[in-house]
Amino acid sequence: MNCKNCGAVIRYDPKTYSLICDSCGFSKVLPKPDETSAVEEKDFSSAVDNASRDWQTDLRTVTCKQCGTVTYNDPNQISGICPYCGSTTVLDNSELADSIAPSAVIPFRMSKEEIASKFYKWNKWAFWTPEKFRKGAILDDLKGVYVPYWTFDADSHSSYSGRFGITVTNGDDTSTKWHDGNGGFDLFIDDKIVCGSKRFVSYKKLKNIIVFNKDDLIPYTPEALLGFSAEKYTIGLEESWEIAKQELKKRMLNKACDNESADFYDKNKTQITTEYRNIKYRYILVPMWLSATRYKDKVYNVIASGIDGRGDAQRPISVAKIMIIILLLVGIFLLPVILGLIFQFIVIAYMN
Domain segments of the chain: what residues? Predict the structure, then answer.
């Protein structure tokens, strides 16, 4: 996007939620999450026919030659380094027509410099890591990327039957009292979150790094994308809902356990069936700082939340440091033995 006063390219500043032109000083403050109304949820059943495909701006797609990741970018951003695998990316002329447009966005709050500083803190005690990597000298390719997420609301009714156990304590002894149970219950599903990226959906640490709630959302505005990329979702709406239902099954079983006033259930003998209705969804762009750093021909990924800076980093191991640590430990272990031998030698020499 260009400045309306001087025509220069303007940028988004995470610290002030503002669009800034460095050439003429023009600035525009974007809405903050606590200043906007709630983001409207969309009807799941009519999503295919009625979901908006309008991103409200001209975007170009960038496809990575190496890993195939597709991201949406400002037309002025022609090429760059893929934040997922570290290789060079090339432009693709794909259209956005088949891509549902986001309904909400969480603007970046953390700057690149703040993430680089936190990266050093994460590695402060990682003495086994090479110094160049540990001190963050490799973070020049840290990129801000909006990653796709889906959230779901729904009414649900579950019917269950199975075997449930209650822990019985008698003095120092504990035992399990089993009983058969069946019944049903209603449960409202509020903002069940599913990542829309196949690169992250199975990443076990993701839920501890990316934490947000509905109060962080603002209605989607293309201005928040200035200077950043947005990954094209690779897990669509229907597939995400199937993932959500599989993850919700455990919650439903735990609710059945509560209904039976039990401590646990027999996984092999307990069945549950859930029907969902009035399903609503949101498509959200969530900010992340990503880096795929090449160090001695290997790629190490850094991922950090653009909301609060929580993060994780893969680290190389310095063989030289490991050898030094091993030698020091061996030396410490053998020192008493060596001193004992020296003492014995002195005693023997003195007696002779």
Answer: 1-30, 35-154+183-238+279-317, 321-352
